[in-house]
Amino acid sequence: MKSKFKLYFKLSCLSCLLLLAGCDDDKQTGAKEAQQQPAPIVRHQDRFGRYDSIGNLGGKPVSIPGGVVFTWVRYIGDPGDFDTSKQAQKYQRPPITYQLPIDSFGFQYRLTDGAVKTRREQTDEDYLRDNRTLIPQGKPFPWGHIIVYNIVKPTQPVNFNKALADELQATKKVWHFDYFEQPQKVYGLTYFKANNGIDPRTNQPWQDNIAGPDIFISKNPQGEIKTYIQCDFTGEIQSCTHEFYIDSMPVVVDISYNRIYLEKWRQTEKNIAGILDSWVVTDKGALIKKQAGKM
Fold it and tell me: What does the alpha-carbon distance between residue 146 and residue 256 come to, in Å, rounded to a whole number?
């Protein structure tokens, strides 16, 4: 009888030990699974509760204030806005993280003081007022529209050398005139004038510059064109399309504005580089600097 009791006791103890071991294994397995699960994505908000747009821009994680973004942020691989193909309809974007590469996004920038337009803030009211009062009167509109394009392909150019060469060649081939570099720089920019300012069809000063806008460029010490600007020079309201590279990210920026603000080109590039840098965060999304455009 005692031997049976001892056997029963030993079997009970062994069962308890196995049960405890199993519980310990479950704890370890649970801990491992918890470690393997990705950490939750931290997305910051503004004072109105709008979430920032996040992603990777120029190899850096960014958090762009929601009230700043004009329309939306496009990610690499997203179909076009008007793409109605079956492939576009079936497209499923990967989870948005700070590592998901951004393709492009836009925002509004004030050239007079470097402010960023943010919806429901004072800059938004300023923009609407300027749009309502200045444009109808033909006065210079101080706001520029910016599109930022990510550079993700190693083969993608990071200067405008080929772009300028192609433009000059195309003009000569299609419109049958040349651009000539002017002897004097303008605001520190090398200046190219279409056929030295004379329309070859009339042999008179240009009345229409669709075929040959003024071209301004700036090169770095290595001879790379990092700034490429085309400006109207006829008509009441003359505008510029200003493109430039930011090597520190790297990205290419496209901004359009009234030609009267061409003199601010260097400060404009510096300000925009600073704005983009203010949106850079840590790999886990922690803020590093005060975000431009967020109150």
Answer: 7
**Structure tokens given for 238:** 């003359």
Indicate the residue type of 239: S
The confidence score (pLDDT) of residue 9 equals 43
Gap between the Cα atoms of 76 and 61, Å rounded: 14
Which DSSP string corresponds to 19-66?
HHHHHHHHHHHHHHHHHHSPPPPP--B-TT-PBPEEEEETTEEEEE-T
Q: Residues 230-251: what's their mean pLDDT?
A: 94
Is 70 exceeded by the pLDDT of residue 214?
Answer: yes
Locate the domains of the chain by residue range: 37-154+247-295, 159-241
Residues 142 and 91 sit within 8 Å (Cβ to Cβ): no
| pTM for the whole structure | 0.86
Q: Which residues of 54-74 are buried (b: 16+ CB within 10 A; e: fewer)?
A: bbbbbebbbbbbbbbbeeebb
